[in-house]
Structure formats: C-alpha cells, structure tokens
# Entry
Amino acid sequence: VGAWTGGEVLMLSLYCQQVLGYSPLQTGLVVVPQGVAGLIRGVVGASLVARLGVKRFLVASTALSALGLALLLRFPATSRYPLLGVVLFIVGFGTTSAVFGAVVAGTAGVTDDEQGLAGALVNAARQVGSAVGVAALLSIAVGQASGGSTTASAAGYRLAMGVAAGLAVVATVISAVFVHDRT
# Structure
C-alpha cells in the first residue's frame, strides 16, 4: 500500500507542475478530491468494514485504487476538471480505505496488550513501502523521460503511474489470498 500511495502523490504533483505547468498552489487544488475522499472514508470506513468484513473491504479498496490509478492513465496532458476530479476522488477513497483496511487486517486477532505493537508494525511497513515506492516510481519516471521534452516527461509519469496501478492490483491479489476475516 505504501509503495503506490507515496509514489502516486509525488508522481501526480510532479506531473501537474512539470508537464501541465501548474503552480504549486494549483497542484494542491487539483488533488483536493483525494483529501475529501479520505475524510469521507473516515466517516464511513468503520461501518463498511463491519458490513463487508475486513477481507472484502480490503479487496474492494485495493481494487478501487487500481481502477482509479488506471483511469488516471487515460487522461491526456491537456485534461481538466471535473472528470479528473472524480477520478482523483476514486483514487483517494480507494487508497485511504486500503491503508485503513491494512491496519484493521494487521491488528485483527491481536490481544489488547499487543495492539500498539501490531499497529506500529503495520504502519512501519507502510512507511518503508512508501520510501521504496517513491524511489522506484521516481526512477521509472525519470528513466523514461530521457530527452527532457514535455512529451517524454508525460510518458515517464504515465509509466510510473501504471506501475503504481500494478502494485494496487498485486495488493488486491494478496488481500484476496492472504487476508482472513477474524476477530
């Protein structure tokens, strides 16, 4: 989860600034739907896990993230709102739900006196994944963008975003195979 979430946020920000020519403020405004989606997930996440179970919730969340990231690949360099905002909302809801679901899955069945340790391990793994994901996805984007043209940069960021979508697909498979509903 960390590998694609950290990388996606950075790739999208760099894409907006270096390919689309947006200012940092404009870039921040572009990604607002992801934050709004995270807030909404915070309101409905616990009830969705209770209704679906952690396995189905996590599989659905990672699949939604993969779908959203794949949809981002469909937008050309000239894309504008509002459709892009909808896709970013999907990415934000899926990604924040996947992070939430991973914590729930990682701490399920753990005794009360070990909850802090289990939660810390899950979050540490996510942070390590984020560092590796940022480094790998940025390397992919830069490696593909040889020549320095806007078209080459766009292709590099698209490839990196495609890899992020692939990581979300892998997380979906892992969630489907290895996550079990337990309390």
Remarks:
- Residues 53 and 181 are 6 Å apart (CA to CA).
